[in-house]
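CHAIN AND CONFORMATION:

***
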Amino acid sequence: MLDGADDYYTGVSEILDVQEIEVEEGGYKRRAMALIPKEGLALVELRIYKDYGEELGIKAVKVTVDLLEEKVKEIEEFPEVRKPKVHEGIISTDELLGNPSKYHDQRVTVSGEVSKLGEVRGPYFMLDEKIWVCYLTPEGSIDISNIKNGDYVIVTGTFWASGTIQAENIEKAE
């Protein structure tokens, strides 16, 4: 499945089932919906990337795994989608948030003012009070020891339509 791939991303999650339950509140019983994990099953999501020069191919695959029997139950493959690469120039935070689907899963360079650094749990800060930047990479944390709230930085990384950039590089602007 990964033959010919230039890169890939995996995510693993529980598979949930929607069930109707009875809830008691203030002496009254009512029906409600609940999400219950399906025991022994996991969903593995793969995003497979292929570099075609001017375009980036992205293919999604969902695999349902039976953990108890240690075998694949179902594979759902989606057709590859090709998107033009975002190449040159710095994109504004407004442009990213104004067109999130255009830049989703794309490598971008964006600049802005750092805020909330050291104020949230985890390796995150905000850029222009609009976009979250994660500075933890598979290789480790990006050194941001010379950066503080209020600094102007240039961030290169993968943009997710949820409003987060997975940083590859962070430079303090002069």
